[in-house]
Amino acid sequence: MKFSSIIMSAAAIGMSAVSITNAQQNQAACSSVYTRKELLSLTSSEWTLYKAILAAMQRDGWFAWFSYLHVQWFNQIHGNSQFFPFHRRFVQDWERVGRMYNSGFAQPYWDEMRDYRTPATSQVLTANWIGGNGAGTNLCVTNGVQGGWTMTYPNSHCFSRNFANNGNPTSWYSPEYINSLVQKNSNMATFRSDMEYSLHGVVHIHLGGDMYQGYSPNDWAFMLHHANLDRLWWQWQQLNNHLWTMDGPNSDGAATTLNTNIAYFNEPIRSVMQLGYGNMCYQYSSNVLSRRDLDSDVESVLAVSLPTDILSKYFPETAKTHHINVSAPVAAAISNLSNSDIKAPIAAAAAIFANSPIAAQVQSLITSRQRKRIPRPAEITDAWAKMHNYNAADVARVKKEARDFVDDMAKINYESPF
Ligand SMILES: [Cu+2]
């Protein structure tokens, strides 16, 4: 079974349990739901429309307004359990404004895991989309949708980026690792810190410039990034019954519950928990499988190529529901499908999987992808942790987990097709 069908069946369970849902939330199901797509899946007419909307939002001061809000509430919304609900509500508010210009707008996301090995070569960061690194003394971005813009908050300055590592950011987080975080966390406190202190921070830091600052909403990459994080939270909510899971500390140290108010918005967290209800009338295209969606691919790779102990440690959901007990020779054949030695086992593996439900995925994975070791990911910096007042022990734990994952996968000679 593919990951996408798990999500669809989770959604179906949610919909059949309408009375529970309403008791939890007391909100009506949306009469219609629009879809947030991966940026590179937009059609050219959608992208033309979105560029015009973003230009109008800049002209009317909305970039400055969202940056101002993010700075004003900075200490309340990072490093605690407000992180996911606040940013969900924040991106949704941004999108609501965009939809006042044209109701065809839906905030896209950037599937950053797709580009994790060499982020600077991402198509997203080109003139066709959101532009690349800044240049000159002020690191002004001159291409892409915000190229040449003058931002007005907190003072007048050119829109800037300052890619890490002299313009060539090192690796981010693999699809396998992020999938593992979605699968293995059983509470909000650890899921939140795992995500906030890894992928979340590194993308902000590595794009740099405006994106590094408290006023990072100046860079539309902020919305693409947080839509992706929101999509991953939603995946986590739908797996293993976490739809209503909320725990961990609030900004004042008290326990966060579904009744805790979201900073600034003063609405209870429960009101944003369930997409498709109340004001949360959107869905993600990964739930209907976009062209660039990786989730089903990730699941297929894991199911056929990992030993049981690694599966249950890092991918407990896959272990429970997807694992195919292949015979030892087949497992060996599959794990030998490396760059240099790919041809011989293909025919055997393809024949064995020819009548299985995952035949098509196996076929495309073994014939079309190069497989390589997962590199250790970049880490958030001490300066960044300090700027956000992060708990140092939590940051150290998250960094160690990410390193251990890569090392454990290397130990079993796992090679990733991503
Ligand atoms: Cu933020």
Automatic annotation (TrEMBL):
<protein>
    <submittedName>
        <fullName>Uncharacterized protein</fullName>
    </submittedName>
</protein>
